[in-house]
Amino acid sequence: MAVTCVRVPREEGEATRKRLAERDAIAEEYEITVEDGYLYIPLSEEVDRAALEEGYEVVDRELERRETQTLPADPLGFEPSYERLGDIAIVDEDDDERAREIAEAIVASDLPVETVVNRASPIEGELRVRQWDVLVGERTETVHREYGSAFELDIEEVYFSPRLATERHRVVEQVAADERFFDMFAGVGPFVIPAAKRGADCVGVDLNEVAVEYLRRNAERNGVADRVTAIHGDVRDVEGFDDWADRIVMNLPHSADEFLETAVALADEDCVVHYYDIQPDSDPFGPGERAIRAAAEPDYEMTVENRRTVRSYAPHESNVCLDVRLQR
């Protein structure tokens, strides 16, 4: 199978392997291969090629999977469903016995997992947090790595979805250096931090005080504290940023429409808004478009640049994104 690898001279191989391992950048399920004096070190899918240090040669190469790797499916006899968030594995099982069986198989495998939790409640309240049953381990705090950025967080205290990594990367890839970037519901910074790493001047606001503290720590961890302003509070009460933003992220499905007046006030003369919504499949984009247009006109001309279905949310409902340009 073709795998993205770092190609490095053999004599530099161990030092390079250690540096990549420190960043959780190595795909452990593939063998490191040596050929013609070079090491080929497989990279995990979450690594951003552009985020690698200069001097690395990145190539695609056919590699064999590690035959000795033990996976959760081996003792179970079936492929369990779980998500990885740093060194935490998340399962979603109604049957407690089955959940514990899966948890034990995960920690017995070669996966770098220390804690396994089961969802014990839906997302609840203004702060959008869940209750969890800790099946194995003790810590609910971890460091999750995504496309070259590292995010410290506690799943009991903040909301974070690893499923949205590709969507976040899509948005951040559009960010230009010196852009003014405003995330109205920033959490621990999964949009803000990589945008700042691209050279943007970023503001992140969140109602969850713990999330805002993690946002500050993550800005320091990723070396972008000088380009990140983290604010605790309701974004509708934040002052000093009228007519400021070149790009706004509104990732608060179900209720983002309640904040459109604030978004329009934040927008500069030419601003892109990434508006997230959950709507019936029969009309996934119409309600959002109408709400944005009502808030923006007549002061701004609105152009829909992209309509995107992010994922299925529930039967006959989708999580969607509208990329909208507002021009005064």
What key attributes describe this structure?
globular; 22% helix; alpha/beta
Write a structural description:
By secondary structure, the protein is α/β, with parallel strands linked by helices. It has eight helices and 17 strands. The strands form four sheets. A seven-stranded mixed sheet has the order 13-12-11-14-15-17-16. Strands 2-3-1-4 form a four-stranded antiparallel sheet. The protein has a four-stranded mixed sheet with strand order 5-6-7-8, with helices on one face. The radius of gyration is 21 Å and the shape is globular. 35% of the residues are buried.
Give a quick summary of the entry:
With 328 residues, this protein is α/β, with parallel strands linked by helices.
Which SSEs are present, and which pair or pack?
Elements: E1 2-9, H1 13-22, E2 33-35, E3 38-42, E4 57-62, H2 73-76, E5 83-85, E6 88-91, H3 96-108, E7 115-119, E8 132-136, E9 141-146, E10 149-154, H4 165-172, E11 180-183, H5 192-197, E12 201-206, H6 209-221, E13 228-232, E14 245-250, H7 260-266, E15 267-280, H8 286-296, E16 301-314, E17 317-327
Parallel strand pairs: 6-7, 11-12, 11-14, 12-13, 14-15
Antiparallel strand pairs: 1-3, 1-4, 2-3, 5-6, 7-8, 9-10, 15-17, 16-17
